[in-house]
Amino acid sequence: MNGDEAAGSVVTSAGPVGSEPRYLSGFGNEHSSEAVPGALPVGRNSPQRAPLGLYAEQLSGTAFTEPRAHNRRSWLYRMRPSAAHPPLRRIDHGALRGAPFDEVEPDPNRMRWDPLPEPPAGTDFVAGLWTLGGNGDARRRTGLAIHLYAANTSMTDRVFGDADGELLLVPERGALRLRTEFGVLVAAPGQVALIPRGVRFRVELPDGRARGYVCENYGQPFTLPELGPIGANGLANARDFLAPTAAFDEPTGPVEVIDKFCGRLWAAERDHTPLDVVAWHGNHLPYLYDLRRFNVLGSLSYDHPDPSIFTVLTSPSEIPGQANADFVVFAPRWLVGEDTFRPPYFHRNVMTEYMGLIEGAYDAKAEGFRPGGGSLHNMMSAHGPDRSTFDRASTAELRPERVDQGLAFMFETRWPVALTAAAVDAPHRQRGYDDVWQGLGRNFPESGGSAPS
Ligand code: FE2
Questions:
Q1: Residue 7 has what pLDDT?
Q2: First vs last Cα of the chain: how many Å apart?
């Protein structure tokens, strides 16, 4: 049975499975939407009686008193208040882990993994989450976790929400149809979805199976980076972020509502779905973004700019410019630098870099870095192009060159990433990753004199 068939048992207001959802354009906007005309109150948030017998409920993603520019909250008009639930019980969290990450001691070695193995039949998105590592502390709302997922079953009677952080979903194989409290987003490989802290959703798999990456951001919500001298436009443009329009599941039976709280999973059976929001307004919203819309900027003269120029979204910290988390994309682009080593340079970085590959190949690693796999270069670990890439790029004739063979991304974070025991011991971890830098021999003459002719 594929994902669509599994999803067929749930009745929704969003049209038949497979129909294109409608979206609202703009990042950070105050949006509003109603699935049924007249469901949205006018002129106030919480009238004595909300329209159509709905309950009004505020969902706050920031403290009530945070500055207006950062404040995120939405008002939901729903069939039942979220408060109507029985006690939560702890459930198994499988391969999901949370901060603080102290299973194994932090390891400065450079690491690389192949894609996750195919999961057992019947694995849905939540059961298919596998934690690679992370930093910070979910209880202090700092740091992040890096997860991967591999799933082959749609969620029909299970709904998930994450109190620990927002979820940036990066599909690598198979689309995700995300049925959220705010409506439906369909994220295919090459697109990303952002689910804010606390927003409940279930995941259908229109392609029958799915695999990808998750950045769970415990810190301040992702926002668009400042543009500085770039000007008013560029990088990820706000209008290309798409919020859903209101859509709800019709209640058909018991639902297991799973909440992630301080790194563990808790659940309660309910006789009604929490995806029962008929109308909403606010700015604490899920988003869809197509990475190919990214306006790639770079050097028109010489040198490879620092990869911060490729930042799509940033979660700031209290130190200006030092992100709790950055999401960076290496999108198709032209390289035109003169007298320039064009691939990413050798470097050691105070920030920690996890890289993933959505498709194709990455221009600094000729082989071994596979779609669905990933690499971790921890704080101050030395890395850069592999031997074959160095040789090629050092001698290539420097014509304008289009780099469009792959779509890679990076989760970059201010603190070192500690791995889970599962990530260290994984059969799909590549034990010989250091070898890619073997053979980068000395070219400087032995005598210390002039270079060989
Ligand atoms: Fe790097």
A1: 38
A2: 67
Distance (Å) from CA 340 to ligand 1 centroid: 18
The SS3 call for residue 239 is: helix
Look at residue 1 and tell me if it is in a domain: no
> Same domain, yes or no, for 156 and 298?
no
- 288 CA from centroid of ligand 1 (Å): 26
**Same domain flag for 303 and 284:** no
* Overall number of domains in the chain: 2
The model's pTM: 0.94
Rounded Cα gap, residues 419 and 416, in angstroms: 10
Note the pLDDT of residue 362: 73
Give the tens place of pLDDT for each residue, 21-60.
899 999 999 999 999 999 999 999 999 999 999 999 999 9
Catalytic residue check, 85: no
Q: Are residues 269 and 301 in the same domain?
A: no
What is the average pLDDT across 197-210?
A: 98
**Residue showing tokens 């009677």:** 157
* Catalytic annotation, pick one of 70, 85, 304, 347: 304
Query: What is the span of the domain harbouring residue 242?
Result: 23-291
CA of 210 to the centre of ligand 1 (A): 27
Q: How does pLDDT run across 265-313, given as a tens digit for each residue?
A: 999 999 999 999 999 999 999 999 999 999 999 999 999 999 999 999 9
Whether the Cβ atoms of residue 355 and residue 407 lie closer than 8 Å to each other: no
Torsions phi, psi of 297, nearest 5?
-110, 150
Q: For 231-260, what is each residue's pLDDT tens digit?
A: 999 999 999 999 999 999 987 789 999 999
CATH of the domain at 104: 2.60.120.10
Are 411 and 329 part of one and the same domain? yes
Q: How far is the CA of 228 from the centre of ligand 1 (A)?
A: 23
